[in-house]
Fold this sequence. Notes:
The chain contains seven helices and eight strands, in the order βββαββααβββαααα. By secondary structure, it is α+β, with helices and mostly antiparallel strands. α4 (134-144) packs parallel to α7. The longest helix is centred in the middle third of the chain and has 19 residues, at 63-81.
Amino acid sequence: MNTIKTGPDNNRTAQCPSCGREGKAVNTTTLHSLVRADRQDRITDSKYLFCGSQGCDIVYFTMHFAERSDLWSGIKARNVINQNLLTLANADIWSESLTRDGSHVFYKEDLTVRVGIKEESPPRPICYCFNHSVEEIFDEARRTGKSTVIDDIKSRIKSDGCSCEVKNPQGSCCLGTVKPFVNEALRQFGKEVDETVAGTGHKDCCRP
Length: 208
């Protein structure tokens, strides 16, 4: 069942209706920047969440969709015991009504960019402001035994600023996502992991 949760900051979060991963709140500014032009009219003022699971086709879903999916899962489970609770025909109609207007969920195909952390094959963009990729990180680690991507991102943020909210599908700084890939690349090629990049970043890591 897709459990609705309350985080430590009292912001409600929910699990992706497809893969079950907990979603991350994202501003509609991000959707308006990255959703295809022919899908823009489907964006509403609902609270959207980002799903970062690799292999899952859903990128954004609404809290409303997650809540309804959670409720519907419970109804279907109870219906196995009590066949009179709801007929299967009514079930299909009710379930379809959640998505037929297309506003509650956006898939990878609905975006103008590839969502690197969700892809299994290249190219896998990881920093959208300064055009770094997962492949670049691993290639540099293989050739030189180190990665300069994080230093480059930090340096360019200080000099040029960043546009994560409108360029990164996650709607936030990429450093928390980049760091684990850097560490994985260094370990894969038998290099020592720099403990200064062992963390996952913080909420305002784009700020100088």
